[in-house]
Amino acid sequence: MPDLPLALQFAWLIPALPFAAFIAVGLGVSPLSKRAAGLVATLAVAAAALCAWLVAWEYYGLYPPDAAHPAIVVWSFEWLPYDAGLSASAGVLLDPIAVLLLVVVTTVSALIHVYSIGYMGGDPGYGRFFTYMNLFTFSMLGLVVAPNIIQMYVCWELVGLSSFLLIGFYYSKPEAVAAAKKAFIVTRFADLGFLIGILLLGFHGHASFAELAPAIAPEAAAQGVANLQAFDFHYLTHPEVLARLQAASVPFLGLSLLTLAMVLVFMGAAGKSAMFPLHIWLPDAMEGPTPVSALIHAATMVVAGVYLVARLMPAFAASGDALAVVMGVGVFTSLFAAVIAVTQDDIKRILAFSTLSQIGYMMLALGVCSPAHPLGYTAGMFHLATHAFFKALLFLCAGAVIHAVHSNNIWDMGGLARKMPITHAAFLAATLAIAGVWPFAGFFSKDEILLAAFSSGHTAVFAAALLVAGLTAFYMFRLYFVTFWGGHRGPHAAHAREAPAVMWVPLAALAAVSAVAGFVPIGSFVSWGEAHEVPHCIDLRIAIPATAIALLGFALAWRLYARDGAGAARAAAALGILYRTIKRKFYVDEAYLAVTKGFIFPYIARPIAWFDRHAVDGGVDLAGWITRTTGRLCRRLQTGQVQTYGVWFVGGILFVLLLLWAALA
Amino acid sequence: MGLVSWLIALPLLTAAAVAAVPARRWRMIRWIAAAGTGAHLILTAATTVLFWQAAAPDAAAMEGALHTKLYLVEQAPWFKPLGIQYYVGVDGLSVSMTILTSIIIFTGVLASWDVATRTKEFFVLLLVLVTGVFGVFLSFDLFLFFMFYELAVLPMYLLIGIWGTGPKEYAAMKLTLMLLVGSAFVLVGFLAVYHAAGLRTFDLLALGRAEFPSDFQKWVFPMIFVGFGVIGALYPLHTWSPDGHSSAPTAVSMLHAGVLMKLGGYGALRIAVYLLPEGAKAWALLFMVLTTINILYGSFAAIVQKDLKYFTAYSSVSHCGFVLFGVASLNFMGLKGAVIQMFSHGIMTGLFFGLIGMVYSRTHSRMIPEMGGLGKVMPWLATAFYLAGLASLGLPGLSGFVAETHVFLGGFFGNPWVDAAVARTLTVIATLSIVVTAVYVLRGLATVFQGPIVNPGFERLTDATWNERIATGLLVAVLVVVGLAPWPFIALIKGALMPLLNRVYQ
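Above: the input entities. Below: the structure tokens describing the complete assembly.
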């Protein structure tokens, strides 16, 4: 590596700062002073954000926009030496998507931390809250900068842990505990796929390591990988390695090894990103405090899956089939979740399904990507970034609203536009952004995804994505109208008051970013492959239908919900069973329960426990019983009674004589 | 007397000191025990440092070695006609297990602070038992090894039978008899090796240089492996463990699950694989299958347990499966994973059983459904419990992750003597346990510590006392240190494992 700018050499500070704060706040600060806990935690993340912006500045100073952007490892050390060629290092890898995510995650997280100082102010678990938040931020940052798949997996699991801790933050509340368990177990199940994928990649990558590594190592060394290992992304995403993996086949459906491994890895990604059918944990995850939801939905947990697919894009693209799976799951989830979002009544639940839908959108974008049409990569990452800001904003606004009306149900709200003007304005900005209205950020990123689908020839995907755009506009404006317009419905809606400055300042900041982030020429910064097919201008073939369908959604929502929602109730009644099925989220949760509670527990776990106690341990007891019984029988031979001995003696002689007689005869 | 002999003698001397104190001064007795085991911890640290310094220059040489190299050796003839000697020393494997044992006995003493019935006898037996354990880990003469091995097993009968709970006589009897059957197998194996070598010595390293015919190895290996497998909870010989552990008093469960179960993995590696590599190859498949069953079966059985101790005991069955699975996979990562898992599981399960004792002393119940919301009144214990649980489900940053990923990689990479597809299928089956473990750990812990407080009496319960804080804090710290910085531990054990591997692959 050439001499790096100072900011890049110290890029490890970005994950290290929240980690240090996690340790410090958890062990020392929070027992001493409650106020200090929030302050230290927030300052650490803010400092990390500052470092991230500096790193972005220096990275694009070193590799100017529109040039090639290599993935450089700026810092690493050997952490877990499994075997020769299979060491896992802990390090910091910087490439455009890592830099983008570092900036987004730290910035959004810092703003959420500031907001939380106000939101969590009266909570007895204040210090604990900030401890977990720092752990969460650290885990996500460690994942973003991972230079190898093991560090990715390590931080991946830590993200899962942090979400468990934060979703179950109100640990006396049974629903929160259940939701936390559900989130952890569902994502753990998904991680099983990731783990097996890693085992496959590690094994087969290592098989050709001795042969290929000498050729790849110098190239990797020039990008800062001093000691190339089979787990390193520089090795795993190298075209020659991928060609080997693609050529190897597995005795399963005739798949190539690469496809199988990448589909398994995607299972992990789908779990964290809550893709169908592993989405069931996310809607329940709103049991955590609202800032946690904001963090999970915007900047940390759910985007991890998208990031993993992007990080391994060369491998997914080399497999082709695996990428088709990503696309299919993405399209389906985005549509599925958007349909459910239309029927929900809980403000956080609506936003949760909207997250599912938007993450599906990003997966879809990555899925339509190919070496010939790499626009989806740029578009997906762009949408990830813009979505992080406006979704964080939506959740924080929802938090402010919930704070004010003491209810999550949108039908308890209403008329809040006058009571909470700042929150209202911020929420409107975010709604316009997510609905894709010019000039808000969502317009640009969503259009880019539509363009990527369209220009890569996936017409059906394009049509589905367009439909989702319409649905998104509809359910978001439904939410907006019901919450902020009309009369005060709930008991507290009339006394709602604007949130304090510590809460509304982050809202304003996020709103500002949501409004202008679309103008960032993202294609110059984030791209994949050689072909730069990223014209940063508005393509009218896309913009006109997209805007039209968004307006249609808006108009429908206005018609049905702007005044009282009675029309909507009639429409729902007319739809009958279809409406109820959607409202019950297509009964996916019930299906899961049937498998776990209805099958695995009674028909696997309980019989095994029974078998162990009765069959295996029964064998042991049987051995004991045989011994004891034999002893009891033999004891009769030695009673100490002369008479008994006499009987045995005479009997014995008779028996022997009988034998002799039988033998002679 | 050298350092290593002190490591063995110190617990025995402490036991003697305890025996000399009048029984009514039971408070003094526990202080003596704590001081003795605390001093042992310091002695162990010194041994580790000396070993580290001495072994560092040899690291490169060990890469190709066929026999482990011992340090701090002490050797003296004991019974010349049969070639029995007092032969003790350390290599990486013994040092790591000594550290484990020393930590567990120290924390075990702290966790037994409130044993008020027959305190004197309790501590004497506990210390005698642990003398045996240290002896096993440090001796390199098979006879001496076996003698210490029996010394470690037998006091358990009294410890469970007298200070236990529930059906303690039954459990004590079952545990002791099953382990003795195991040691009978081991003894036969040892004698067979002794005679087959024809060297008139029980010196392990000398026996390692003897040539054993392949056929001989094929019948002796399973004998020794299964013999050790009984104490290592090899399926289906594990059933002494749930009953034994749940009836035993806290410190005994800690020591037994934390350390004694490791004698199985240790013996399998140190003796079975070392002396009989051909046998290990021939039987690798069978033992991979059995240990896969161990891993998954134990975790499924743990899901439905209602008693915290049974819950942990089945979880131990699953985790000890990892140890023997790693051994059976016969490659570097597998063997390394086995040793890391022995250490990690030892600490983790010691913590589990210690904590269960602490919770029980407050709630007077070990039944999961009877508890709830305890995290609010005992945050320290709840946090420690959660950390143990997270280590158990292989969370990165704690030692369980390091061990489990090693074992999974080891199984997946397999060896030339087991069909690759079979080894990989078994490994994939074993990986299912990461989900099942998450299910039972979270279900169990969430029920006990989270949710609303179910019993108004629980509101008055108190959090950990100072001795409990030291014990649990130390154990948690070890889990975290090995999890965050695994490389020193790996460097520590590597030199002892390379010869085993080289012998298998030579």
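Note for the figure: Chain A has a mean pLDDT of 86.
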